[in-house]
DNA sequence: CTAGGGTTAG
């Protein structure tokens, strides 16, 4: 048997596999009810990374007269990790005597297919069979629920596991971090440490991802200290996550220190993370330098590398360089995806080269996505191109986008041309459609505690003081000639929605709170989930001058460092 | 013999 196994291991072509299959058939093993070699062959074929093997595994399986549960499991496992995980779920219903492994592979499939109802169906099967105490299944179940977006169920499964091990904790920490419940993820990581549970590299990866999202520097430094103490930094992925954490907390240089002193080898991801970090900070030169340096190493550049460097050009306004890099990609064997096109369209659009941007969209071999049309629309707004704006909006409506921002942009273009009837038409369209507004919120860390604000928030214990500070700010910036940039559209629509009033945007609330509670000389750091709004950008610049206070705002796409009345983005965003 | 948790992205 061991001999047969080693032969199967060495099968590298389909023809090898067919020879083994023929051998099993001629010796009669293939048609037995149980044949370990047959199962091995099936598994080898189903798990092979080459795409042609999985269909052949299905073919072999179809020809087994009475497949054993192990035969079913072997193919199921392959289908679960293959390109169409739903096929595994259909296949599951044909399995007569499923065992624990059957359900384990099925959960991997339902997680990858983001199929919540299938996940919970498998869960109830498990409960009926009394498998709920199985730690491996429990962990897989937590992961599946989390990936399907049902974090409450993931938490419940976690709570019901009698004896949790590292992986169970890690599954929930990672699930919370990826499900935008970063504070909860961080809290769970801390609880894990408090309860004396042994942590490993995967635990810190989850915790670092949470810190990155929150921009929680203090907590991130804590995790980094723990990484060093436990020598977890021999792992590249951990180093990458540490670099990313510092960058997303506003300290690209701290990230760079880790980057340049790490002792384990750098991977593509390491380089990409660092280039992206400089890009986010608007430091186009250092991003390009690093890109150059990367070219001298053995590490192969990939599509993310190019995306990072295009993003750097975009944020630094390096139009020519960006176009050049975009052009050279194909020759260097790096495939362009929709994000590269989006990036270069954005780059050209911001530079006012709308015609070129439009030509690129038309010549794309792939279907443009919503974001791409949105950036073209944004450029049309900036440069007052009504015709192209109408065309972009039509595309957006066709694509089913009902984001508030798209309508506002179009209506702004009309308003700038004083086409009030068209403005009214857009407004009607907004009312008749179910226009989504993504709620904006901002975080600020004060003494290691994260405070969260939404637009018009009055739930903070110090809200009266914060609003008083905002009044004072408004008074003082007016002396500098500030006029609120309430565009006509926003004015019109804002009436029904007082919460969205410009002066109580979440980022202003967070900055005001920062002014009250941060000691002098310390920069105020705020994170926002959306792009910073134009009015807030103007106001914060003035605050940085009047209050002699450095303010760093991380928005959805990049960092803005406000100092002495100007911003590191040079108003180019 | 065969099972679980993981870093970069407009």
Automatic annotation (TrEMBL):
It holds the Pfam family Eplus_motif. It comes from Vitis vinifera. Gene3D superfamilies: Tetratricopeptide repeat domain (1.25.40.10). The lineage of its organism: Eukaryota, Viridiplantae, Streptophyta, Embryophyta, Tracheophyta. Residues 481-573 form the DYW domain. GO terms for biological process: mitochondrial mRNA modification. One of its GO terms (molecular function) is zinc ion binding. Belongs to the PPR family. PCMP-H subfamily. InterPro entries: DYW_dom, E2_motif, E_motif, PPR_At4g14850-like_plant, PPR_rpt, TPR-like_helical_dom_sf. PPR repeats lie at residues 165-199, 267-301, 302-336. This is DYW domain-containing protein. Transmembrane segments: none annotated. PANTHER family: DYW DOMAIN-CONTAINING PROTEIN, PENTATRICOPEPTIDE REPEAT-CONTAINING PROTEIN. Keywords: Repeat. GO terms for cellular component: mitochondrion.
